[in-house]
């Protein structure tokens, strides 16, 4: 079974044993927007135009709800918005649980429903079939070791890198090699600039835009 870029990132970004995210959920949501943009870009649906805006190349629905929501939103405003503005506009709408449930349905994760202190219900998604994550890690590690990395593998690594999880997931990875592999991924680079390399100003902008919008058409 082929996983989406969002599913591959989430599978890596949640703990195998406890099913908890390795970074704050706010960051997971931001990365999910980037993952959807990456999927659309690799599918030839969107591209970065010469002015740095995200432009729709093919508005035909993909049949995937999350992808089509993003595609329709971009088509509605044209290429006026840079990637960072889409991160700000769309991250609050992301629902990591949808991705987790899809992974559980595929068998990559297990559903662990429990009650904290015997009262408060909660759900965790620990690892299911380890083969799913092993395949992703093997592809990325092969690229880090000097092998060839396909566009999808580079896209997932770019998201891992932007989320500052490279060192935790791939200890000992050569920083220069990581940068080399992700350099051509415009979505990952945009996220890295916006959040991965971000300063307090960008975080404030994200919070402001979530509530009030970003002032763009």
Overview of the molecule:
By secondary structure, the chain is mainly α. The protein has a domain of 149 residues: yeast vps74-n-term truncation variant fold, CATH 1.10.3630.10. The chain is 56% helix and 7% strand. A hairpin with a 3-residue loop joins strand 3 and strand 4. It starts with a helix and ends in a 5-residue tail after the last helix. Its main location: Golgi. It is found in: Golgi apparatus membrane.
- Beta-strand content: 5-15%
CATH superfamily of the domain at 5-129 and 186-209: yeast vps74-n-term truncation variant domain like
Residue share in helix: 55-70%
CATH topology of the domain at 5-129 and 186-209: yeast vps74-n-term truncation variant fold
What is the succession of H and E elements? HHEEHHHEEHHHHHH
Number of helices, counting only DSSP H or I runs of 4 residues or more: 11
Overall geometry comes to globular
The count of β-strands is 4
On the 0 to 100 scale, the average pLDDT is: 88
Cα end-to-end separation = 39 Å
Write down the Rg. 17 Å
Q: pLDDT below 50 for ≥5 consecutive residues: which ranges?
A: 198-217
Q: Give me the CATH architecture of the domain at 5-129 and 186-209, please.
A: Orthogonal Bundle
